[in-house]
Amino acid sequence: MSIQTDSVGRNALIIAFIINLIMITADLAYGLMMNSASLLSDAANNAGDVFILGSSILVLSSTTVVKNRLALLKGIIMIAFGLWAFYYVYLGIIGMSQLTGGIISFVGVISLIGNTSVALMMYKHQHKDINFMSAFICCRNDAIASVGIILAGLLVIFTRSFWPDIIIGSFIATIVCLGGIKIIRLSLKSIPSVEDDCC
User: Is 50 inside a domain boundary?
Assistant: First the structure.
């Protein structure tokens, strides 16, 4: 990897890191206000991503062995955040939600714009190593989750029920857990195998 390419990749990771920090703030602020399972699940997702992206920046110039070991930790942390998100799904099921569908969808639209841009940016770098691959998986999951949040908000408006929020929250939490499992699997393989598996 050339110095110029390495610099471009680092800048992409930094931008993704900053956007995820912004998304955490929005998700937590509105999610806690309404006890929204979808927004709080997304906050858990973004919190895991902040750790993953931040650590990816730190080990950018490290050896393959170090990157693989960190990727294993990343996967475990993603699963932990996914399970944490399921806790808020449970709270929603027992009726501790005061939802406003319009706000949920608004946050989802903002998230979709930012996360899609970052996912496309990270897609260009995912082939480099497992460090970038794990970062891309996180950003891709964020974009998918944003679509789910928009859908949850719209369904809450039209159905006047908290169940769409619960269902989408469960979906996002599941995506987080599955992403963590995939990263763990990739971390146990050699880098050439990772590239073959993901192309």
Answer: yes
Q: What is the 3-state secondary structure (H, E, C) of 136-184?
A: HHHHHHHHHHHHHHHHHHHHHHHHCCCHHHHHHHHHHHHHHHHHHHHHH
Structural domain count, the chain? 1
pLDDT in tens, 52-89: 788 778 776 667 777 777 778 878 888 988 898 898 88
Q: How far is CA 112 from CA 11, 68, 108, 151, 196, in A?
A: 20, 29, 6, 12, 29
Question: What pLDDT digit, counting tens, does each position of 152-190 carry?
Answer: 999 999 998 889 999 999 988 898 888 889 888 887 875
Q: Token pair for residue 52? A: 């993953």
Q: How far apart are CA 155 and CA 142, in angstroms?
A: 20
Mean pLDDT of the chain: 81
Domain-located, residue 15:
yes
CA–CA separation, 122 and 118 (whole Å): 6
145 contacts 45 by C-beta, under 8 angstroms: yes
Query: If you search the block for the tokens 């955040």, which residue do you land on?
Result: 81
Which position has the token pair 């110029």? 4
CB 154 within 8 A of CB 100: no
